[in-house]
């Protein structure tokens, strides 16, 4: 994916601008920033659901289009309706191309892939249950499996570890890493918390106060860089390989 001089605004408000970034296959980008900074909007641009107000965006070398089978998406967690007429397994199968067009058949190969993903996210025990009765974390694991089913070249993740316990955080992170490293996908990973994925991150895109920084973890996650970005004192402390960011404010606080 590639963005050049990209900007998004709503009415008179500029959300972010002058974003230049190009992500190669196999690269893992973490997108960070406070509430309302424009992280989910960045994903929407890559999904073709949000127009840029300036600049250009390409996905897999082509102009963005909605519903591309080459793009996988793990949306931000929300609980599915109790009455949703799908079994857990069906939700994963929806990630396969044939199902997008409503084809009734599932090839043996596709069935094997679905079984494999259900096992990898640890959903065997509830694969036949209606999705609406499952817990938030159980549903989230199925969404991850669904996004990976089509073997996407670009995988977009919006806080995919939210509502998962530590073991399942690790399992899902490992699946996402495999998609990047073994299957050569570019990964864009929106998160409030970099530590669970820090060892996999190649680059960071940090949004705050309408500005942003791009670079490696070492380049961006520094007290002086974030202090300049937030325009108020921020301290980044490293402790046993984890980063603690002190003094981060929400966007709302600044605009109040
Ligand atoms: N279609 C829209 N029209 C007007 N404003 C919008 C629209 N979409 C998003 N916004 C605003 O843009 C801002 C950024 O939203 P976005 O969801 O991208 O933030 P975020 O960084 O993902 O936040 P969070 O961490 O809370 O999920 C918010 O203030 C939101 O209200």
Automatic annotation (TrEMBL):
Mind telling me which InterPro entries this protein's record contains?
AAA+_ATPase, ABC_transporter-like_ATP-bd, Metal_Ion_Import_ABC, P-loop_NTPase
Q: Name one Pfam family in it.
A: ABC_tran
Q: Which PANTHER family match?
A: IRON TRANSPORT SYSTEM ATP-BINDING PROTEIN HI_0361-RELATED, METAL TRANSPORT SYSTEM ATP-BINDING PROTEIN TM_0124-RELATED
Which SMART domains does the annotation name? AAA
**Gene3D superfamilies tied to this protein:** P-loop containing nucleotide triphosphate hydrolases
| Family statement drawn from the similarity comment of this UniProt entry | Belongs to the ABC transporter superfamily.
Recite the UniProt keywords alphabetically: ATP-binding, Nucleotide-binding, Transport
Which CDD domains does the record associate with it? ABC_Metallic_Cations (cd03235)
| ABC transporter domain ranges (all copies) | 1-234
- Domain of life, per lineage: Bacteria
For whether the record's keyword set contains Aminoacyl-tRNA synthetase, the answer is no
Single GO MF annotation: ATP hydrolysis activity
Which protein are we looking at? ABC transporter ATP-binding protein
């Amino acid at each position: 994916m590639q963005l050049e001089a990209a900007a998004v605004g709503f009415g008179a408000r500029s959300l972010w601008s002058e974003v230049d970034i190009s992500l190669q296959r196999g690269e893992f980008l973490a997108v960070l920033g406070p509430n309302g900074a424009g992280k989910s909007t960045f994903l929407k641009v890559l999904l073709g659901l949000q127009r840029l107000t300036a600049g250009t965006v390409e996905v897999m070398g082509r102009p963005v289009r909605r519903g591309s089978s080459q793009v996988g998406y793990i949306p931000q967690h929300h609980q599915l309706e109790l009455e949703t007429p799908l079994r857990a397994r069906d939700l994963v199968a929806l990630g396969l191309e044939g199902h997008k067009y409503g084809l009734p058949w599932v090839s043996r190969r596709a069935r094997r892939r679905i079984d494999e993903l259900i096992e990898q996210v640890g959903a065997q025990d509830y694969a036949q249950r209606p999705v609406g009765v499952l817990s938030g974390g159980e549903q989230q694991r199925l969404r991850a499996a669904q996004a990976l089913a089509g073997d996407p070249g670009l995988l977009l993740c919006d806080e995919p570890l939210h509502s998962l316990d530590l073991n399942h955080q690790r399992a899902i992170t490992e699946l996402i890493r495999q998609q990047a490293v073994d299957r050569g996908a570019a990964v864009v990973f929106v998160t409030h918390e970099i530590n669970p994925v820090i060892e996999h991150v190649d680059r960071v895109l940090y949004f705050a106060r309408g500005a942003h920084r791009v670079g490696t973890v070492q380049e961006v996650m520094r007290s002086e860089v974030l202090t300049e970005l937030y325009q108020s004192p921020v301290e980044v402390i490293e402790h046993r390989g984890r980063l603690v960011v002190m003094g981060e404010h929400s966007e709302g606080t600044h605009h109040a």
